[in-house]
Structures are given as C-alpha cells and as structure tokens.
Write a structure and sequence with these properties.
By secondary structure, this protein is mainly alpha-helical. It is built from five helices and no strands. It has one domain. The chain is elongated and about 65 Å long.
C-alpha cells in the first residue's frame, strides 16, 4: 500500500511541475510579445520621423536597414504567444466532425510536426547567427551587427517549441481526464 501512495504522490508532483512549467512558458511568451510590440512602435516612430525629416531635407540615415532588422523582432518574438492564443492558421475543418480520439491524435501529431519544424528553424538560425558573428557581417548603411537578429529568430522559434511541447502534453492529459 505505501508503494501505491508514493506512486500517486510522484504522479501528482510531476503533474504539478508540468503545470508550473506551462505557466512559466506562457507568462514568458506573453512578456516577449510586449517586446515585439515595442519593436513595432519603434518601426512606426522611425518611419514617421524619417518621412517628416526627409520632407524637410534631413532623412534619417539607415532607416531602411533599421526597419528591416526591427521587422525580425516584430515577426519572430510573438510566434509562441500567437500559438498560445490559437491565432495560427489551422485546418480544423477536417477534424471537427471526427471522434474525440481522432481530433486528439491529429492535434498531437500536428504539435509534434510543428515542434520538429520550429526546432529545425531554431537550430539553423543559431548556426546562421554564429556564422554571421564569426565573419562580422553588418548591415549595409549603419553597420549594425546582424548576428543578434538571427539569434532572435532562433529564440522565438525555440520558445514556440516549448509551447508546442506543452500543447502536446495538454492534448493527451485532457483526453485522459475526459
């Protein structure tokens, strides 16, 4: 009987740890989304300032480079938060009329495939960022190092991998609880 109790406590502890992990990943993803929003505000302010100053004859040097690099921040960082909110494109039509088992299996397989794809993107972006760092590649006009932006893409995709991992776990935990 003590083995049964200790097994139940271990399962409860593991479930609690996973719930804590999911909560931390979700909170961090939402915080990172705000960093992305600040990047978007920066893009807007820089573009508006450049238009006004260009009209006055004083364009801002490197606006095109900076806007492009900020675009990386704006696109890559909110990927995980978008996944949490369920805002990515989904093919729900094919599974809406199927049984719960088929829906759960399809969601689990989609999470695993997405996890693999985003994992590969994170890995390759890290390798690319390291290459950019080693060769010292910078932007054309204002010479901003490019490697941090490749690492930002890797970070956004790696964070999404954690969200997809939690989605995979939750899809089967919910199925067992029903």
């Amino acid at each position: 009987m003590p083995d049964l109790v200790s097994g139940a406590l271990a399962a409860y502890s593991a479930e609690g740890k996973m719930a804590s992990f999911i909560k931390v990943v979700h909170s961090f993803s939402h915080w990172v989304r705000w960093v992305s929003a600040l990047g978007l505000v920066g893009m807007m302010l820089l573009t508006s300032s450049d238009v006004v100053l260009r009209y006055c004859g004083y364009p801002i040097k490197g606006t095109f480079d900076i806007i492009g690099l900020l675009g990386t921040v704006v696109v890559a960082l909110p990927i995980a938060s978008t996944q949490i909110l369920g805002r990515h494109v989904a093919m729900e039509y094919m599974t809406t009329h199927e049984s719960r088992l088929i829906r759960t299996t399809a969601k689990g397989m989609t999470s695993l495939l997405s996890l693999g794809i985003y994992g590969i993107i994170a890995w390759q972006s890290t390798l690319f960022g390291t290459k950019l760092w080693r060769i010292g590649r910078v932007s054309d006009t204002v010479e901003i190092p490019l490697f941090p932006f490749a690492y930002i893409i890797a970070f956004g995709c790696a964070l999404n991998c954690l969200v997809l991992l939690s989605d995979f776990y939750q899809s089967f935990v919910r199925e067992e609880g029903k």
